[in-house]
């Protein structure tokens, strides 16, 4: 197993140990998915994400194929979309951030074609359809330009268009701050997740339930997130977070984009050393 492959699988498994309200974690399954589904997905997709020399598009498409073969459903498309460029950047000499910018600048129509095929296979529902560009047709743009068209309604696409600012900016900075405070790895990732959920409406929730409900969830998360992030003992918030988790799952709300970004933050931090 390569260093990049191992770091990817470890990041996916670490995120499952974090208490992420509305998502699958070690305290609770949800949305007809289990902890084992995600663990198996991580193991199955890691070789493709870490394949030396592969393009970003190839990594994503082969990882989606491996996931579908392992668990028969889409558990990790957003994770793969975020982590494949980071994995490619980690193969380059020097700083990860600079490498990522170079990778994003190099993405072309072949990458877009592979990613469109991956999205069709994963079938996430609602992702990738705009009047200008549709994943069900051959791409007319490079991958980053295609992502720019979706950036206003999908936070993963927004990160492609903005040099992964959520991941390498606010997310990584918060993770480092919580680790310096002495938080355990799982609670630090819980903090990162709640930071994302509190800061902006989750775009997976918005696609499934509408922008208004996504904003309501953000507001619901904001007070609890602020109290958690100010705490010296995050474990004291376990009961409150589990209550919020139950409330979200009863409404069939899955803030999946915030969880995907959390995995990417952990992966980027590992790659950067």
From TrEMBL:
Pfam families to which the protein is assigned, alphabetical: CitG (PF01874)
MF GO annotations: ATP binding; triphosphoribosyl-dephospho-CoA synthase activity
InterPro entries named among the record's database cross-references: CitG
Record-given protein name: Triphosphoribosyl-dephospho-CoA synthase
